[in-house]
């Protein structure tokens, strides 16, 4: 089965080594600007069945380990594995605890044995995976029967205001690309996992100016990582053009930045 993520855009998703390096560099600054990540993760947790109590959980793409610590508090009888591709994030998370094990690994090739997890929790990580089929296959393999894969990701429409503003300035790739929501529906439906829930919801943040938004993206490690991005420094004229174009979106609360978030809860059949 082929990956339906970004047809006719070869190499459209970032190289995972660049993703790992970018998020490693952002480890120290990440939590200070992670409002969206906290909100999305809490929303994802609320979508788990109230009576679901996993014995062993995996925080897939754990980042600074915030939700590893939340999972440990919510399921104190269980044990957890915090996994991330970015060594810098793991080095930040490990002293703060939460998980029993902290593991460097790739969501497309999990270093875990078959049928060893009751829950795979992944908040805003799998959008960086080029082969989402492999992510789903690995989840199916690693979950125990009756186990759940709960993930939040981003789809097309994310940062549309920033993308449209750059489009008025030049034709280069300035904003990370994401899959269509329809592709998530197709791939999850064909994964062998039962779809308990799969929706997309917009989250809108507001900023006083463009610089505040771009600074936050850099602090998160989520700035432009795509092939085709411009190299070197961005000229003053283009920055001024971006600012002028983005001002057309200004609302009373400030400049909006929309994130189209995919929420999914999938279950491995008994």
> First CA to last CA: what distance?
24 Å
The total of helices stands at 10
Q: Would you identify the regions where 5 or more consecutive residues have pLDDT less than 50?
A: 1-13, 26-33, 223-233
Oligomer: single chain
Main β-sheet: number of strands, strand sense, barrel status?
Answer: 7 strands, mixed
Q: What is the N-to-C succession of helices and strands?
A: HHHEHEHEEHEHHEHHE
CATH class category label of the domain at 16-158 and 176-204 and 257-267 = Alpha Beta
Spatial ordering of strands, largest sheet: 3-2-1-4-5-7-6
CATH homolog superfamily of the domain at 16-158 and 176-204 and 257-267: Vaccinia Virus protein VP39
Instruction: Report strand %.
Output: 15-25%
Observed structural traits:
23% strand; seven-stranded mixed sheet; 7 strands; alpha/beta; disordered N terminus; Rossmann fold
Quick take:
The protein is α/β, with parallel strands linked by helices. The chain is built from 10 helices and 7 strands. Strands 3-2-1-4-5-7-6 form a 7-stranded mixed β-sheet, with helices on both faces.
């Amino acid at each position: 089965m082929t990956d339906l993520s970004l047809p006719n855009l070869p190499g459209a998703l970032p190289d995972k080594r660049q993703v790992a390096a970018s998020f490693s560099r952002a480890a120290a600054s990440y939590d200070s600007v992670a409002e969206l990540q906290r909100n999305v993760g809490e929303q994802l947790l609320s979508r788990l069945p109230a009576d679901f109590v996993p014995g062993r959980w995996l925080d897939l793409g754990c980042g600074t380990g915030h939700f590893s610590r939340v999972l440990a508090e919510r399921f104190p009888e269980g044990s957890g594995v915090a996994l991330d591709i970015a060594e810098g994030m793991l080095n930040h998370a490990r002293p703060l605890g939460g998980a029993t094990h902290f593991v460097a690994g790739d969501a497309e090739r999990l270093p875990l044995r078959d049928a060893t997890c009751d829950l795979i929790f992944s908040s805003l990580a799998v959008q960086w995976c080029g082969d989402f089929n492999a992510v789903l296959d690995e989840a199916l393999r690693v979950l125990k029967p009756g186990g759940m894969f709960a993930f939040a990701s981003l789809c097309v429409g994310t940062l549309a205001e920033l993308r449209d503003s750059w489009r008025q300035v030049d034709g280069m790739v300035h904003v990370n690309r994401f899959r269509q929501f329809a592709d998530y529906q197709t791939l999850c439906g064909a994964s062998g996992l039962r779809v308990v829930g799969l929706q997309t919801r917009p989250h809108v943040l507001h900023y006083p100016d463009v610089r505040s938004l771009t600074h936050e993206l850099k602090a998160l490690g989520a700035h432009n990582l795509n092939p085709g991005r411009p190299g070197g420094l961005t000229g003053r004229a283009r920055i001024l053009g971006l600012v002028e174009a983005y001002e057309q979106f200004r609302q009373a609360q400030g400049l909006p930045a929309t994130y189209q978030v995919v929420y999914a809860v999938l279950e491995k059949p008994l």
